[in-house]
Task: structure prediction
Amino acid sequence: MNEIWQSLIDGVAVGSVLSLSAIGLTLVYGILRLCNFAHGDYLTLGAYLAFAGNVWLKLDIWLSAVLGAVGTVLIGLIGDRLLWQPLRHKKASNNTLMITSIGLAYVLRNGIILVFGASPLRYNLATFPPVNLGGVLVTRNKVVVILAALVAIALVAYILQNTKIGKAMRAVGDSPELAKVTGIDVNATIFWTWVISLSLTAFGGTMYGLITNLRPNMGWLLLLPMFTAVIMGGIGNPYGAIAGALLVGIAQEVSTTCPQFLGDNAQYCIPTDYKLGIGLLIMILVLLWRPQGIFSKSA
Result:
């Protein structure tokens, strides 16, 4: 049971990171109709910019997280102005947008390698011994990641439900043409969609760096669980993305737990290399039961 509880805590920490990035991914798709395969690399970019602030500039980790978010948003907005905005005006097809996003992902990833190198990196943080709760070891960083994700999610929920920009984002997501007719500034809504989406994603990358090493391909490897969470929760619904992300994170970690009573029969346990497949399997089962996802499309 201790191993299961340990995996459960690990799963909640990973699911918290996934939820932050999955919210950003589903907002971009729901409002811009963009299936953005570069989203994982924006997560990586935020983590590495935070590393630059923490290690190179000797900033506090929270100031570094702000630096990572601001830098990622600026680069993302430049990308929107130079890349996505012209394609929107030309009414490019979804296939064209998707392939373009894959190319952008490779550009971002190789740019990170060019500046930071390909070797794993870590933040310069003080280390604390884990707390032993009845045989379950809980590290301070995992607790910080979970609590920080909860605060960020609560803030986004408030913005979406109680502010003009949140209501405008929901209106544009339902129908851009109708939103424009009613006087909503669609371009401003797109701007704030990128700001919120990329800020969350970059912050998620920084939080992920607290519980693992930084690698140039870490966001790319998280992309499949992100899409799994978004599809499972209901495409375009940020709350569904949160539920899907937590479900995927917990399922992946708990499924690879090998009970001690198996002893010499440990070969029957699921190897960690296959844990991504567990999330996909759960997504298939959920979609067979509820094809539209756990929640409806609208936020």
About this structure: The CA atoms of residues 255 and 270 lie 7 Å apart. The two ends are 37 Å apart (CA to CA). The mean pLDDT is 90.
